[in-house]
Structure formats: C-alpha cells, structure tokens
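#struct-queue
[09:14] JT: dropping the first one here, sequence first, then the structure tokens:
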Amino acid sequence: MRHYLIHGLACLLALTSAALLATQVRAEGDGLEVGIGYLAWEPKRGPLLSNVIPEPQDAGLRGAELAVADSNSTGRFLRQRYRLDAVRAATPEDLLAKARDMHDQGLRLFVVNAPAEQVLQLADSLPDSLLFNAGSPSDELRGSQCRANLLHSLPNRTMLADALAQFLATRRWQRWLLVSGQTPDDQAYAAALRRAAGRFGAKIVAEKPWSFDNDQRRSAQADMPLFTQASDYDVVLVADERGDFGEYLPYNTWYPRPVAGTQGLTPTGWHKAVETYGAAQLQKRFEALAGRWMNDRDFAAWIAVRSIASAVTRQKSTDPHAIRRLALSADLPLDGFKGRKLSYRDWDGQLRQPIPVVHPRALVSTSPQDGFLHPVSELDSLGFDRPESTCRQFAAAD
C-alpha cells in the first residue's frame, strides 16, 4: 500500500508541474495549439494456422487522425488548433526512445496503441504526462497494474466478457463449452469468460484447451466435431485472440450450437454494423479518410483524442492534470455515437461505454442488456465495478 501511495503522489506532483511547461501550448493571439502524440508498436504475430484476415497496419492511427480533423473543424471557431504527431516504432526500445523525444519537444498528451507491457513502461517513463490506452485490453492495466496518469478508451477483456454473458443470459444460453488457446492473451480472455459465467449465472460444462498445431484449413471438418464432444451445451465460447483456430469452430461443432467469444458472435468496442445515434455519419467520415471500415482500435483512438479536445474546450487549458481531473469527473460527458453519454470511471480510468455484440456482418445486440441494473449506471454492470477494483493508485493520486 505504501508503494502505491508514493507512486501515486509522485504522478500527481509530476502532472501538476506540467502546467508550467509553455512548449505544449503555443500562444497564437488568443488561441491555443494543442499537440497530441500517437505512439504505436505491435509485436509480430508469428505464423498462424488459419487464413485469418490481418488487422490493418494503420488501425488506431486513422481514428486519431479523424478525431484531430473533427476537433479542428470546431476548434477554429474557438481559436484552437490540434496537431497529431504520430510514430510507429519497430521495437519496444524504439517506441520508448521516440516517446521521450516527443516529451523533450514539449508533448504531454499521448494516445498509445501498444501491448500492456509497453503501455505500462510508457506511463512510468512519462509521469508528468497523460496517456490514453487505445490498444491493450489487459485487465491488469485497470487493476493491480493501474497508473494514475493512464486512462483507457479501449474496453478491457472483462467488459467484453460481461457484455457477451449478459446477452447469453437474456437468451438463456447458460451452459457453455469453453475452448481456449495457449497464448497468454487467450488465457486472459478465458479467465474473463470464467468470471462472467460466475457473475451472470452460467455453467461451464467443459473446458477444452486447443493444443493442436495442425493446419485447420484442411482438417477442420474432421477434427472439430470430435474435439467439441462434451456434455450437452447451449453455446461454444472460444478464446483465440490471434485467430489460430477459432474461425473453424462455427458449423463444425459436435452439437449444432452457436459459437461466441473471439470468433462467431463477438463483443467489441466498435464495428462497421454500428449505425444508430449518428454513428453512420462517423463511419462515412472515417471511410472517406481511411478507405476502409472503422474498427475498435480506431474508435478507441478517436474517442481518446476527442476526450482531450472536449476537456481543452471546456477549461481552455492543456494542463494534463487538469484534463485528467475533468475526464474523471461527471462534468465531461462524451458523445461517442453509442446512444449514451460516455465517461471515465474515477477508480481505474476505464471509459464507460455500451458494447456492441456482433457477428461479422451485422449488429446482434448492445450491452448492457435490459434488466441488468446498477445503482449508479447500468454501464458499470460491465467490467470491474468500484467495490471489485484492485486499482489503488487512482485513490492515492486523488
């Protein structure tokens, strides 16, 4: 506990001192120039056993670029100009070096699309800055490894699992067969599904680890039915974030049952099929800019930049500590085209948001589902609620 308090107070003092930096904001008459750094590094995925469609190389970046364009559209009337300085690093060391260079040039606001380890390293290396995690769904970054100067615009795995479990509960598909891969990310997703099962009254009738290394393009029809033999189940839940085998489970299970999780019926932060509440206009603007569909990383980066712009507009300042304080208050509701005002949880920095539940070509539902109530906000029925949180640095910093 003492370690958390010391680290949290150090982050608070460092953030406060950033208000003295004049290089972040350059006066232009009565206007402001707001610099935002975008930091990206993705590890090589390695050889895959399936023909999975890779994520776009510019995932996240294009969302940040659109948000800067949107912010400048309104900002010019307020004498505000937003600038995005983006880097894509070749290695984690390169990412850290480039982040420090940007920091030396005066940037104190960053959007990060990187794995959890690198996000944590950046947060610790830039204690006087405010970072928005738009790339890692790690539960630990919102829990035991949280940092006071780190907010999260991407949903974490627990939020996604809860969103899916709520939908399955409404359909009374409460007997699950859980199939999980061997990577740490797969195991983390499977752990989130187990927690969701206990939270929403589902029963995992069997768990089967995927340990095969054969090419499913040739043998899925023969292997999958035998592999998915188990006590009768309502749905097969799959934890395969890389896409090694999960794409071959639909229509190849022992019982004719739906597949959900990382493949099949999927909870996600954003999807092309989301079109209500003005989302269709956001989708069109994004497609005109990027020439492709908007995905969850793009949306997370977009809403992160829009969070910064909304705070700057409200307080006429780019002080990172002031932006953090406003973002964690009830005074900065955000429009994310999801039918509800979005806000950041003040106990772990996670953005509250509805979660679309989709299949590849259509929106099936949106969680939280009707009937899942909460004393403060139904959005807090997804993910770690305040009493469950293991994040201590937010309390120490505040």
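[09:21] JT: and here's the second one, same format:
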Amino acid sequence: MDEVERIERAMIAIRRRQTRRTLGAGEPSGQAFDVLDVVEDAAEPTVSTVASALAVDQPRASKLVATAVAGGLLRRVADQADGRRSLLELTEAGKALVEQAHLRRRGAFDRAMTGWSARERDEFARLLGRFVDGLDGPPGAD
C-alpha cells in the first residue's frame, strides 16, 4: 500500500470517528454542531457563510441556523454596515458548548499523541496544516 492509500485510509478512519462522536444528550451533532464551528471561525458569519462552509444549499443552511437559534445557541444580529443583512453570533450557551467541544477534541488529540516528543508533535502539526492547506489544490487547479 502506498503513502496516498495509507493517508486515505487514515482520513476515512478519522471521518468515521467524527461521525460517531457524541456531544451529550440533547446537544446538536453532525452538521447541526458544525454550524457553531463555522460561526465561531468566520469574521462575518451569515447563513451564506454557513452554506458555503458546509457545502449545503441555502435552504438547508437556513434550517440548520434556525435550529441553532431556536436551541439558544445562536442569535441573529443586524449588520451595522448593511441593515438588510443579519450576522450570526454565538450565545453564551453556544460559546460554552463550542468550548466544551474544543476541550474534548484537544483531549482526544493529546491522548492519541501520548508518548510523542514535542518535536514530533510540532512536526505533525506543521505537516497536517500543510496537508489541509493543500486540499483545495494549488491556485487555478480547479
């Protein structure tokens, strides 16, 4: 098996573990939780931002956002630069849920790298970042 096949298998295994993750009873998971990650990371998060980041259509993104708003995890706020547009913002409950997820993820990553030296962790972080940056391919590769 060559390196690319080994990487593919590892990425599939990671995806399966993410799909099975549980955040707790009654808490969102899958795309419903991914909305919170998108809002946390975006400079000016909107429903369109969510749709693009999750590769879903606008109606699906609207439904996911509406569910998070109804659940008290997000709120819509008027864009001060363009009153016709609403921005999305994590509520305190949404921020707490995302922070709990960060702690769980980091704990899982830390356990997976038990016994790794600081140099190995640093090299892995560097290479993984480079790999992720390359997933979209070089500019103009589409």
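[09:30] RK: nice, looked through the second one.
[09:31] RK: Helices lie at 3-20, 31-41, 47-54, 58-70, 92-112, 118-134.
[09:31] JT: good to know. The mean pLDDT is 87.
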